[in-house]
Task: inverse folding
């Protein structure tokens, strides 16, 4: 029997090492090496044909006498033109980030911090899909009673359990309760609507991959939810669940079943301290779509962001709100990230950011005050820190504001991350308004990128941004000069320099508006 070989694989860069180190020699990550055991086979793989057989016919200039023909490859003409109809998940925000709906046979990976609401979202989506399709919810972290308790709190009525369903089948064996192969094939093509809430939602508390695959083969669901992939293990492997080998092999096996049986897989993935999905990077390469569930534990809203999507645009976002009975979608997120426009404060500016193809109107707030330390402090919440430092340098050099003697704090309302260059002009105007203690017109939006020379550069998707601003009732838009603008019910003020945008956004302080009162003797 061949002697087993022990080696170690890094969870981050997948580099192999013959011995364990506290720090990966390749990428420098600490405590990332996982032990793996493999058995070397004495049989030469190349001797089984394939590459070896092809190589033997090519030596000494000889070529095969058989005519060239494909064994399994197909041309585009031979591939069927079957139109794939997307399924509506019941949540428009989830359908948006997926590219228009759930694609049958696809594999979707959802990652996020603990307690952010991944399992809650998938259980609610499973409940809505179970009204039309057959759903299998595999819980590797909770028992059936715990899932049922959480489902009752979310309003999911009576989800079926595999164990209870098996007892019902033993007592009642009718043709209606045991579908034949013909009816199963028809249900795969066009599932019929079920009566009642959660009528076709089955719960399976299991972590053994072989048992999960047997249940999928027996139940033949349209959608299978795996919560989570780090808890599933393949008994043939000696490594612990969640290791590189286990996550890779389990995901590959589920992917094969999803593609061959046309079953949609929704998989939950744990994340590391840095926010990346735990396990090998090949996990994100195998799946079709990667979604990140983001949010602040002290805020009620949650952001579902697309990182990878083979069936739609990337960097799309869907916005949900955590309420008493689970997650509720927010169809108009601009109202969530806008402050009180009826009572504006100095140092605020309105910008239009784009997340994928969705424009979002966000309020930026700035606070500038004299520093009491040798070096001023800069802090940004929801914006890129390097962009903030760059804009402060431009304001000091090109506009003449002594930012090197002032503390600067900039934040986005609601904590939304707006890191694209199109919000540069709004950041600059908010800082200048706070420095001069002036109020920017609440009916004005600012769109543009600030260059190092003080220029206002053009940005993309200008038409979408202006349409969103006009829909929310804004009257003016300060934008870069030189772009084509649609004919909308909004006044366009094109500018080429930051100083021009400051003059247009912040009205000149008159004598009546100032706090200076002249002496009567003068």
Result:
């Amino acid at each position: 029997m061949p002697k087993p070989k022990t080696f170690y694989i890094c969870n981050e860069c997948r580099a192999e090492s013959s011995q364990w180190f506290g720090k990966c020699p390749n990428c420098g990550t600490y405590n990332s090496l996982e032990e793996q055991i493999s058995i070397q086979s004495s049989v030469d793989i190349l001797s089984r044909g394939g590459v070896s057989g092809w190589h033997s016919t090519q030596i000494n200039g000889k070529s095969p006498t058989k005519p060239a023909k494909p064994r399994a490859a197909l041309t585009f003409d031979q591939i069927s033109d079957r139109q794939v109809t997307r399924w509506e998940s019941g949540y428009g925000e989830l359908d948006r980030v997926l590219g228009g709906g759930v694609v049958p046979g696809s594999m979707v990976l959802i990652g996020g911090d603990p307690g952010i609401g991944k399992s809650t979202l998938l259980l609610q989506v499973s409940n809505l899909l179970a009204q039309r399709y057959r759903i299998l919810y595999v819980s590797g972290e909770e028992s059936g009673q715990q899932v049922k308790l959480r489902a009752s709190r979310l309003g999911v009525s009576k989800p079926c359990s595999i164990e209870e369903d098996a007892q019902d089948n033993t007592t009642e064996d009718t043709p209606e309760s045991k579908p034949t192969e013909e009816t199963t094939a028809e249900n795969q093509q066009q599932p019929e609507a079920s009566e009642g809430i959660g009528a076709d939602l089955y719960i399976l508390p299991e972590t053994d991959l072989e048992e999960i695959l047997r249940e999928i083969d027996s139940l033949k669901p349209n959608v299978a939810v795996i919560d989570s992939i780090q808890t599933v293990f393949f008994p043939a492997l000696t490594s612990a669940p969640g290791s590189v080998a286990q996550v890779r092999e389990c995901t590959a096996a589920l992917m094969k079943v999803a593609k061959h049986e046309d079953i949609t897989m929704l998989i939950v993935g744990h994340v590391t301290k840095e926010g990346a999905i735990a396990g090998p990077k090949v996990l994100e390469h195998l799946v079709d779509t990667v979604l990140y569930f983001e949010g602040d534990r002290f805020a009620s809203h949650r952001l579902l962001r697309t990182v990878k999507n083979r069936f739609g645009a990337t960097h799309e976002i869907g916005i949900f709100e955590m309420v008493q009975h689970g997650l509720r979608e927010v169809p108009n997120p601009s109202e969530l990230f806008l402050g009180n426009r009826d009572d504006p404060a100095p140092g605020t500016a309105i910008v239009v950011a784009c997340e994928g193809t969705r424009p979002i109107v966000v309020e930026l707030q700035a606070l500038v005050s004299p520093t009491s330390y040798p070096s001023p402090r800069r802090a940004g919440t929801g914006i890129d820190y390097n962009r903030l430092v760059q804009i402060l340098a431009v304001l000091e050099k090109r506009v003449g504001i002594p930012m090197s003697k002032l503390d600067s704090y900039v934040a986005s309302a609601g904590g939304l991350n707006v890191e694209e260059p199109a919000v540069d002009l709004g950041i600059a105007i908010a800082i200048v308004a706070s420095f001069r203690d002036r109020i920017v017109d609440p009916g004005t939006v600012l769109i543009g990128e600030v260059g190092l020379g003080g220029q206002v550069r053009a940005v993309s998707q200008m038409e979408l941004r202006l349409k969103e601003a006009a829909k929310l009732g804004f009257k003016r838009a300060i934008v870069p000069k030189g772009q084509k603008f649609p004919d909308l019910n909004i006044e366009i003020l094109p500018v080429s320099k930051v100083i021009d945008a400051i003059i247009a956004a912040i009205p000149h302080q008159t004598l009546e508006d100032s706090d200076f009162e002249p002496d009567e003797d003068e």
